[in-house]
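Technical annex B. To support the medicinal chemistry partners, we prepared a structural model of the target in complex with zinc ion, based solely on the information shown next.
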Amino acid sequence: MRADIVIKNIDNLYTVKGPNRPRVKEEMRQVGLINNGVIAIKDDKIIYVGQGVLPEGIETDENTIFIDGRNKVVTPGLVDSHTHLVHGGSRENELAMKLKGAKYLEILEAGGGIHSTVKATQNATFQELYNKTRKSLDSMLSFGVTTVEAKSGYGLDDFDTEIKQMEVARKLNEDHPVDIVSTFMGAHAIPASYKDNPEAFVLRIKNDMIPQVAERGLAKFCDVFCEKGVFSVDQTRDILETAKRWGLLPKVHADEIESLGGAELAAEIGCVSADHLVAASDRGIKMMAEKGVIGNLLPGTSFNLQSGKFADARKMIEEGVPVALSTDYNPGSCPTENMQLIMSFASIILKMTPEEVLTAATINGAASLKLEEKIGSIEEGKKADLVIFDAPNFEYIIYHFGINHTDKVIKNGKIVFEKLV
Ligand code: IZC
Ligand code: ZN
C-alpha cells in the first residue's frame, strides 16, 4: 500500500492504544508511548504505527509527504467533548460583577447570564453566527482539537433560534476540517415567558422540540442543565427519558454548583456522560463508576467562576469513573478555546497525571461522543486525526502552560494547520 503521509523519527509518539471503550483507573495512565515512532497515513486513515522504519508492504513515492518527527511529540487529535460553540455576543461585562462577588446563578436569576446570550444569539443572523463560530473552530484547531461537541441552548422557547444554532453547527461540520457533534440543549434555562410555569416549558421540550430535533436529524445527544433554579432532577429525568425514546443519547450538566443528585441521575438513566460534577456526592460517583458513565470535567469553568471549587478527579479515577476533559467553551463561564490550557489546569489543579490528562482529552473524550471506534487513538484503521507538538515530551506541554505548543495538525489525513515559523 502506498502512503500519502509518513511521519518518521518521532521522538515521543503517544498512541493511547488500547481497547475502544472509555478507559478507567490505571488504564488511563497507559498511553502507549513509542520512542523513534513512525506513522503512515493513506487517504483519511492510519495504515501503520510502529517504531523505526516502515515495514515492507508500505510503499512511498515522489508524492508521499514526509514529516520529520525529531524533537516532536505526536498525540491523537484532541477531542473537546463539551462546548457551547455556537452563540452570539460575549459577556465580559460579567467579569466586573464576579469580581465584586456576584455568583453565576445570581446573574442568571436576575435575567443576565444565559438570557443575555439568548438575546444576542436571536439577534445574530445565520451568517454572523457562522462567521463567529468559524473563528472559534480555527482557534480550537490551532490548539490541536480535531473533534468538538456543540450544544444548542441559546434559543430556549424560541425554537427557531435553537434550530439556527444546530444548522450553523451542521454547515460548519461540512465546511470546516474540525468535526462537530451536535447536542440539543433546549433545557438550558427557564425562559422568562415560562418563569411561573416551568413545567409547561418541560412539556414543550418533550412533546414539541425533541421530536422535531430527532426527525430532522439535528443532534446526536440531548443535554439538560440540572441545577438549582434551573431544571430539577425530576424534570431532567423526564426530558432525558423522552430524548432516549427519540434516539437522542442523554448527557447531563450535573452537580456543577449545587449537589442536587445529578451524578446519581446520570447513572440511573444511563447517561453517556455527566459533566462538571464539582459538587457530586460520593454515592453519585460510585454509581457512575458502576454504570460506566463518563465524568466529563471542565476545570476552566471553576477557574472562571472564581468559586475555588474543583471536581474531585482523583476520587473519580480511583473509584473507576472514566474521566474526560473539555473546555466548556461558552461566553459566560469559560470563554476559551484553548484545550491545552484546560489540560494544564487538569494536571496542576485537579492533580491528574499527564498520562491521565492525555487519555481524558483523547479516547475518553471520543467515548463521551460515542466515537471511540473511529477516533481517540493512533492505531491502524482509525481516522488519521493527530497533532504534532513542538515539545520534547508530553509532560512539557502540560508544564509549560498557557501557550500553544502545536506544530501541525492532521485531520482526516490532511495537514490542516501548520505553525508559521
Ligand atoms: O452561557 O452560561 N453553565 N451553561 C451552564 C453555561 C454554563 C453556558 C452559559
Ligand atoms: Zn456546559
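Notes passed to the chemistry partners:
The mean pLDDT is 98.
Residues 84, 113-114, 117, 225, 253, 330-333 surround 2H-imidazol-4-ylacetic acid (ligand 1) (CB under 6 Å).
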